[in-house]
Write a structure and sequence with these properties.
The complex is a heterodimer of chains A (about 325) and B (about 350). By secondary structure, chain A is mostly helical. Chain A has 12 helices and no strands. Chain A has a single domain, classed as ABC transporter involved in vitamin B12 uptake, BtuC. Chain A has helices at about 1-30, 40-60, 65-90, 95-120, 145-150, 155-170, 175-185, 185-190, 195-220, 235-245, 250-265, 280-295. The termini of chain A are far apart. Chain B has a domain at about 60-295. Chain B has helices at about 1-30, 35-45, 50-75, 85-100, 105-135, 140-160, 180-185, 195-210, 215-225, 225-230, 235-260, 275-285, 290-305, 310-315, 320-330, 335-349. In chain B, helix 2 crosses helix 13, helix 3 (about 50-75) packs antiparallel against helix 11 (about 235-260) and helix 4 packs across helix 11. Chain B is globular. The two termini of chain B are about 15 Å apart. The chains are: A mainly alpha (about 325), B mainly alpha (about 350). Chains A and B meet through helix 3, helix 4, helix 10 and helix 12 of A and helix 5, helix 6, helix 12 and helix 15 of B.
């Protein structure tokens, strides 16, 4: 039993970290009333920047490279998401359309520049992050070996960020304003909250977190960038946002659960009982469950009221 | 004022395309390529000789159908982002019928094409039903359905249609849309009869929307659900119907690929992108059957022509993806283009 847990839990944490980060971004954006189908594209951008930064500066920064790379990816992700913010907040564009365009644009730019700079469709491999033992915590009997041995530190960064996101959204006045803007922008505006500014900030936060998620995915799981580095992780993160009912900790839980489904389809063959489940069921589980959650089979999931509606001052 | 608006809604797609192409030229310039060479290569790649023209038309075919799939749902106020999944299941069903049934062509081919349409329709039915009965947002459900389609289809190809192979056998001639006549005409490109089906589908959509009661009701529901309900229309029925027909169009697009272009189906590592491109096509075509055909031609030309850009001018093909994405942004942000045009007009007076 402990052996099984020791093989599953690190893999779950490993697969869910990028999902948690990106899903948190989705929570911020959607809570402010901006639908973000573009999470996939933000992850692509993050993965691209993370890998290119690592390839370029590996010799300069040594072992610090991956940390600086995800930082760079977060910054570029934030800047890139401004396009979505401008289109959907200022220009009243259909937010789903703008998100779809973000996805196409990110992949286009990423692969275009990869070919331009490296002369081929995919980059070389980078070292990325390594598994490490978390000091002190890994010494704890029983729990230590399962949760803290040979693990990627980024997984814990993601979990800690989920709690920070929860604190910001639910315990600060900034969070209250952000949620108000997503529920009833006109009321928020009447109370002196700058709806446009809040939405811009929320979308940019989602860009930062999406970039972070994409780069963590690239630097822990695939180690290079090509057109097939990010295929659907952003949409899975979007599913986690909804399955987690637009709540940061709920999204984290959903992302961990989806990570479990993914890792079971990989390590499951070694575990009795699970090896009898055809892999396809584990692959589609996150998506089927999300539909069921929305259909109200697993509790009700209601979107923020003003989600997807551009705010036009003075209109009712 | 109305004629003015009509003029504007024609002008905006044109301006967006021009802006997109200019942006593409600027990007080429900044990355050290000659934009004129780049666009000339693109032109050659799309219209250079009979073969490339055949391939261009071949590429336009499914784009018309996925464009219709998105546009049709949009007329009822629904966003069908699930054309992607509907294409995949349509492709699978068409090839499946192609392989499993043994019949003369006059029965076999229509049956296989129809199977594709029906499978796509079923894939559209689920989000339609959930939207109509429980009010679940169709965007999310259709996205999820895309992935379910992808994984299930791959599994069926591996375990049901073949014995752990990555692609099926070719379909027999009786189910094939390919035409020797069209192929010899175009130096053996993969051009097939599907283009006729696609154009016919566009005509069907135009007729259905503009000339029938069903179309009137679908549009009414798209404009105002409450008013439609008050007028005695069955809103849920119309929502479901719209998604089923939309899914059917996308399923046909899959059948075109399965029965025409490739003649089989392979395990896919990712999406075909036909469905996502369909969103771009529908948007640029203003959700109108005729506009969709024009937009599909434009995007088909850009995508096919892109194939020539790396050899002809050294430009990566992805430039075209960037251009298309930008065109979508410009159309989606038409609010600002409209504003600028009106501003200029005022100052001109």
């Amino acid at each position: 039993m402990i052996d099984a847990l020791q093989s599953i839990i690190p893999t779950v944490l490993f697969y869910s970290a990028p999902l948690i980060l990106t899903a948190l971004g989705g929570v911020f954006s959607e809570r402010s009333g901006v639908v973000n189908i573009g999470l996939e594209g933000l992850m692509v951008m993050g993965a691209f920047v993370g890998i290119v930064f690592s390839l370029t500066f590996e010799d300069v920064f040594g072992s610090m490279t991956p940390w600086l790379a995800i930082l760079a990816a977060a910054i570029v992700g934030g800047i890139f998401s401004v396009i979505h913010a401008v289109a959907s907040v200022s220009f009243n564009a259909n937010q789903v359309v703008s998100g779809v365009a973000i996805n196409m644009l990110a992949l286009g730019i990423g692969v275009y520049l990869t070919k331009q700079w490296y002369g081929k469709g995919q980059t070389d491999m980078v070292d990325g992050f390594f598994r490490t033992d978390i000091p002190i915590l890994s010494e704890i009997p029983l729990i230590g070996p399962i949760f803290f041995e040979r693990i990627y530190a980024t997984s814990y960064v993601a979990i800690i960020l989920a709690f920070i996101a929860w604190y910001i959204l639910y315990k600060t006045s900034f969070g209250l304003r952000l949620r108000a803007v997503g529920e009833h922008p006109m009321a928020a505006d009447t109370n002196g909250i700058n709806v446009y500014k809040m939405r811009y900030v929320a979308v940019i936060i989602s860009g930062v977190l999406g970039g972070l998620g994409g780069s963590v995915f690239a630097l822990t799981i695939v180690s290079n960038f090509s057109h097939s580095t990010i295929v659907g992780q952003g949409f899975m993160a979007l599913a986690a946002v909804i399955f987690g009912k637009w709540h940061p900790l709920g999204a984290m839980g959903a992302a961990l659960f989806f990570g479990l489904a993914q890792s079971l389809s990989i390590v499951g063959s070694g575990i009795p009982l699970l090896q009898d489940i055809p892999q396809v069921f584990l692959l589609i589980a996150p998506y089927v469950l999300t539909i069921l959650a929305l259909a109200g089979v697993i509790g009700r999931a209601d979107a923020p009221r003003a989600n997807g509606v551009p705010y036009i001052k003075g209109s009712r | 004022m109305t004629s003015n608006n009509k003029f504007l809604s024609l002008l905006i797609p044109v301006i967006s395309v021009i802006l997109g192409l200019i942006a593409g030229a600027i990007i080429m310039l900044f990355s050290g390529y000659n934009p004129i060479d780049g666009y000339l290569a693109l032109w050659r790649g799309a219209f250079g000789d009979a073969f490339t023209i055949g391939e261009t038309i071949r590429r336009i075919t499914p784009l018309i159908l996925t464009g219709l799939a998105v546009a049709f749902a949009f007329r009822t106020g629904l966003f069908n982002i699930g054309a992607e999944g509907q294409v995949i299941v349509g492709w699978l069903a068409a090839v499946w019928v192609g392989l499993a049934v043994d019949a003369p062509m006059i029965i076999h081919l229509p049956l296989a094409v129809l199977a594709g349409g029906i499978a796509g329709g079923i894939w559209g039915f689920v989000p339609g039903l959930l939207k109509a009965k429980i009010g679940v947002h169709e965007v999310i459900v259709t996205i999820m359905m895309n992935y379910i389609a992808l994984f299930i289809t791959n599994e069926i190809i591996r375990s049901v249609l073949t014995d752990h192979a990555t692609k099926t056998d070719r379909i027999p001639e009786t189910a094939s849309l390919s035409s020797e006549w069209l192929q010899t005409l175009t130096f053996y490109s993969r051009l097939h009869y599907g283009i006729l089906i696609a154009l016919f589908a566009a005509a069907v959509m135009w007729f259905l929307i503009q000339r029938t009661t069903i179309g009137y009701e679908l549009k009414a529901v798209g404009f105002n659900q409450h008013a439609s309900k008050y007028a005695g229309m069955n809103v849920s029925k119309n929502i479901i119907l719209s998604m089923v027909i939309a899914g059917g169009f996308a399923g046909l697009a899959g059948a075109m690929e399965g029965l025409g272009t490739y003649g089989n189906i392979s395990v896919m590592s990712g999406f075909t992108n036909l469905g996502f491109d369909g969103i771009a096509v529908a948007l640029l075509g203003a959700n109108n059957a005729f506009g969709v055909v024009l937009a599909a031609i434009l995007f088909g030309v850009l995508k096919e022509g892109a194939g020539e850009m790396p050899t002809g001018a050294g430009v990566p093909t992805e430039l075209v993806d960037i251009i298309i994405a930008l065109i979508i942004f410009f159309v989606a942000s038409s609010y600002i283009i409209r504003w600028v045009i009106l501003r200029f007009k005022k100052e001109g007076k």
